[in-house]
Amino acid sequence: IVLPTGLGKTTIALQVIVDYMQNGTGGVLFLAPTRVLVNQHYEFLKENLLIADIGIVTGEDLLSKRKKKWMNSVVCATPEITKNDFARNMVSPNQFALVVFDEAHRTVGDYAYSIIAKYFENTNTRILAMTATLPSEKEKAKEIVTRLRIKNLIERSDESPDVKPYIQKTETEWVRVDLTKEMKAIQMCIKLALEERYKELRKNGLRLSDNKSLSQLLNARQFVLTQNRRSAKPLFTAIRITYALNIFEAH
C-alpha cells in the first residue's frame, strides 16, 4: 500500500488484522522502524481491537520479559529486536500468519526488514507492506517488492478521485528554532556535499538554479535517465542529500 502520510494506512492495516483474527489463522506481527512508531501502533491497536493479548517488544525490554510478550496474539515490535530474537530462536516466525511492515521502503540492503523478510520466504505468511513513497530508482523499488514478495501494489495520492473527497483541511504551524553549534556544523557538511553534486551536474550540462530545490532535481530525472545517463549517480545522490537536509532542518 502506497499512501501519503495521514490518509489511513494504519486503519487499513487494522481492517486486515481484524480479518485475520476472525479467521483464527495465526498471530500478527506489526513492525515499525522506531520505538515511537511502535508505541503509536500499539496504542492504536489496543484501542481498536477487542482483544486483550496485544504485546509490544522493543530494545527496552529484558530477554526474560520479551519471551513472554512474544506469546501475544498481536505483537508490535521494532525490526532490530525482532531480527535478533528470530536468530536466538526466542520466537518462531511460524507463529505469525500476517506480518505488517510499516515504512516498507526501508526494505533494502542489509536493513533489518530485509533479513526478517527472508524468514518468511517459503511460508504462507501474508505480508502487508505500507509506505508513503516508493523509491524513485526503479531498481530499489524492485528490490523492495521482491524481498517482501509483493504480488499486488495499490497506490493512491491525495489527488486520487477515490481519496480526494475525504481529505480534511489541515493547518500547518511552523515553529522556528535555532540550531545548536554542533547541528550547524553537520548542516554545513551536508550543504557542502550537496554543492559538490550540483557542480558535477552543471559540468555535465544540466541547468540548475541556485535555490537547490528538491522539485528541480525531481524534474530532471526523466531527462537524465533518457539523455544524460552519466548524471544519474550525482542526481540521485543530490536528491537523497536534499531529503536529508530537509529532514535535518525541519523536524
Describe this structure in words.
InterPro entries: DEAD/DEAH_box_helicase_dom, Helicase_ATP-bd, P-loop_NTPase. Keywords: ATP-binding, Helicase, Hydrolase, Nucleotide-binding. Pfam families: DEAD. The chain is α/β, with parallel strands linked by helices. 47% of the residues lie in helices and 10% in strands. It folds into two domains: 9-166, P-loop containing nucleotide triphosphate hydrolases (Rossmann fold, 3-Layer(aba) Sandwich); 181-250. The chain has ten helices and five strands, in the order H-E-H-E-H-E-H-E-H-E-H-H-H-H-H. It has a five-stranded parallel beta sheet with strand order 2-3-1-4-5. Helix 4 (79-87) crosses helix 5 (112-118) and helix 7 (181-203) packs antiparallel against helix 10 (232-250).
CATH superfamily of the largest domain: P-loop containing nucleotide triphosphate hydrolases
User: Which class of secondary structure composition applies to the elements?
Assistant: alpha/beta
| DSSP E strands, number | 5
Helix content: 40-55%
Mean pLDDT: 90
CATH class of the largest domain: Alpha Beta
**Overall morphology:** globular
Please, how many domains?
A: 2
What is the chain-wise order of helices and strands? HEHEHEHEHEHHHHH
Radius of gyration: 21 Å
Q: Assign the CATH topology of the largest domain.
A: Rossmann fold
Give the termini separation.
Answer: 25 Å
Detail the poorly predicted runs.
none
Major beta sheet summary: 5 strands, parallel
Q: Bin the strand percentage.
A: 5-15%
CATH architecture descriptor name of the largest domain:
3-Layer(aba) Sandwich
- Count helical runs: 10
Spatial ordering of strands, largest sheet:
2-3-1-4-5
GO molecular function, one term: nucleic acid binding
Protein name: Helicase ATP-binding domain-containing protein
Keywords: ATP-binding, Helicase, Hydrolase, Nucleotide-binding
InterPro entries: DEAD/DEAH_box_helicase_dom, Helicase_ATP-bd, P-loop_NTPase
